[in-house]
Amino acid sequence: MVINKKVNNFGSCLLMKSGAASVTATTTMRNYHTTNSNKKVVPFLLADIGEGITKVEVVKWFIKEGDHIEQFQNVAEVMSDKANVEISSRFDGVVKRLCYNVGDIANVGAPLIEIEVADSTASPSSAGAATSSSSTVEVAKTTSTPSCAASSDIAEESFGKILTTPAVRRIARENNLDLTKVPATGRNGRVLKEDVLSYLENPTKQQSEKVAVPEQTSTATTTTSTPSTPTVGDRREPVRGLMRTMIRTMNAATKVPHFGYKDEVYVDNLMIIRSHLKKTAERQGVKLSYMPFIIKAVSLALKEYPILNSSLTEDESEIIYKGDHNIGVAMDTPNGLLVPNIKSVQNKSILEIAAELNRLQELGKQGKLGANDLKGGTFTLSNIGTIGGTYADPVLSIPEVCIGAIGMIKKTATFDAHNNVVPKHIMYMSWAADHRVVDGATMARFSNLWKEYLENPDNFIVALK
Ligand code: CAO
């Protein structure tokens, strides 16, 4: 999800890269242990990034152990199911320890790194001064202090079904090893580093030790054994990042009864107009695809059928008609599916919509879509036709009540009024609507009006202000 917001108050400094609406973070310093008379090593706690996020994945370290880092320098990029966030230091100091490997799950509130700072830096008095500048900064506390080890313990307890440390998980990942196969010898079934190393050394022996061998009860069984076929083991991967978001949103959508409606749109006229305007747009530095026309046509049709730009309250007692047409566009990005939205489409020209779509696409490619771009959508379009297909069954983006999936434009043989075969370009359209709120007839009328704009793009001229 997008972001380009740098929260840089006295106590925190974040570059939001995706998702969360208003992320603030704190970097908490607590007294830890003194290394010499004027230096001390303190844990740098992973900030609360809001939105109820309790765990994040460490995507990238910008620093390594031994580095001297300065205030505002980026130390790590982390990813939650809502946002990618760059965390930066508010202190000068030397990195003593990174508490996680890339790919590990870090807990909010637990140490992210250990850093050696000047004794005065993290003193209660200096932290107190920070607090007065920013309500998000926690004051240094003298209670028992968590360290990297605490982070590992937390990660160990809370992540997945295999009990082990991030370091062990890292070794397993590097060796493409499924940890469920490794006989665990640690307390409460923890997989220890030695377990993994010894399994890697001799997987067959370990495996035979792990699987209890049934007792041979008859000579017949021993003599009639068939030759064994080599098998490929299963691989497990933790669910992370955008996939977690997809699971959450799709689960929410399954609770809503979907009504589907599909139709064909003849787009030959649209193709001609687009090819003319494409050059004009290019002169203004804008790439003009079919989407801006499709999006604008949606907005024009929504003016007539505002129920499709609404949402039902959670207690199902009210319908909220949204004032703006914030049209979400499903994007296939290197990080996965993201749905930024184009704000106030009702007030934008086709060229302005195209420019905004270009901007969102570019940010999506770079993994830098901002929270503001991702929130507030009122209606969604998914142009899966850039990849292929005809019809689809789109799933609503709750609490929106309508979504449209566009198939690939294809040249097709059709019949004219005299039964002559005429080649035409057809765009296949699949709508889904929340059937609690939208009835089939309304959906069909909306689709007909939308289709009329696209089949006769001259109508845009009449409709636009
Ligand atoms: N049929 C045929 N050609 C199409 C088309 C369609 N349905 N849609 C777009 N095209 C063409 C465009 O016109 C463009 O051609 P030109 O280079 O001649 O202009 C080319 O394909 C590439 O288009 P694009 O992808 O750059 O731009 P777009 O505005 O059409 O689409 C976007 C933007 C973000 C919707 C698209 O890139 C994308 O990510 N689509 C996938 C959406 C997706 O994953 N949906 C599934 C969601 S549910 O899991």
From TrEMBL:
Q: What class of enzyme is it?
A: transferase
Cofactor section: (R)-lipoate
Q: Determine the domain of life of the protein's source.
A: Eukaryota
Compartments it resides in: Mitochondrion matrix
Q: Select a single GO molecular function from the record's annotations and give it.
A: dihydrolipoamide branched chain acyltransferase activity
Q: Which InterPro entries match?
A: 2-oxoA_DH_lipoyl-BS, 2-oxoacid_DH_actylTfrase, 2-oxoacid_DH_E2_comp, Biotin_lipoyl, CAT-like_dom_sf, E3-bd_dom_sf, PSBD, Single_hybrid_motif
EC number(s) per entry:
2.3.1.-
Domain (Peripheral subunit-binding (PSBD)): give its ranges. Answer: 163-200
Pull one GO CC term from this UniProt entry: cytosol
| Predominant place of localization | mitochondrion
- The keyword Protease belongs to this UniProt entry's keyword annotation: no
Name the UniProt key words of this record, in alphabetical order: Acyltransferase, Lipoyl, Mitochondrion, Transferase, Transit peptide
The Lipoyl-binding domain extends over 41-116
Pfam families attached to this UniProt entry: 2-oxoacid_dh, Biotin_lipoyl, E3_binding
Q: Which family does it belong to?
A: Belongs to the 2-oxoacid dehydrogenase family.
The name of this protein is: Dihydrolipoamide acetyltransferase component of pyruvate dehydrogenase complex
